[in-house]
Automatic annotation (TrEMBL):
UniProt xrefs under SUPFAM superfamilies: Pili subunits (SSF54523)
PROSITE patterns the record matches: PROKAR_NTER_METHYL (PS00409)
Record keywords, A-Z: Membrane, Transmembrane, Transmembrane helix
Keyword Electron transport assigned: no
Name listed for the protein in its UniProt record: Prepilin-type N-terminal cleavage/methylation domain-containing protein
Pfam families: N_methyl
Entries under InterPro entries matching the protein: N_methyl_site (IPR012902), Pilin-like (IPR045584)
Transmembrane stretches, start-end: 12-34
Taxonomic classification: Bacteria, Bacillati, Bacillota, Tissierellia, Tissierellales
Coiled coil: none
Length: 110
């Protein structure tokens, strides 16, 4: 009766192959995750830059009342189709577009 306590060469090769396939899968997922994180960071920086441009545009147009736009506002149960004067501000950068409406100050009713 033989007492075999070791592994055969085929068992070792199969173990290395399975481990390699699992390592490749994990490294691929890791690489994709790093790429997505980097792209998300770049997009966030572009959005923040565009937001700063929108903020500057709002500040620059605060005193100007020329070229006003009208927007209909509806709040269910409270306001129906009220027209509001103001300025539509739109800033674009490749695949990002930010649009906002800045209402004019209401005229006093005294």
């Amino acid at each position: 009766m033989k007492n075999n306590k070791g592994l055969t060469l085929i068992e070792i090769v199969i173990t290395i192959a399975i481990t390699s396939i699992m390592a490749i899968a994990v490294l691929t997922m890791f690489n994709i995750s790093i790429t997505n994180i980097s792209e998300s960071g770049n997009k966030t920086e572009r959005v923040l830059r565009i937001k700063e441009e929108v903020d500057e545009e709002i500040i620059n147009n605060k005193e100007k009342t020329t070229n006003t736009d009208k927007v209909k506002v509806t709040i269910d149960g409270i306001i129906k189709d009220r027209e509001v004067d103001g300025k539509i501000i739109e800033i674009k950068d490749s695949d990002i577009k930010i649009t906002t409406f800045v209402p004019n100050k209401p005229k006093s009713t005294k």
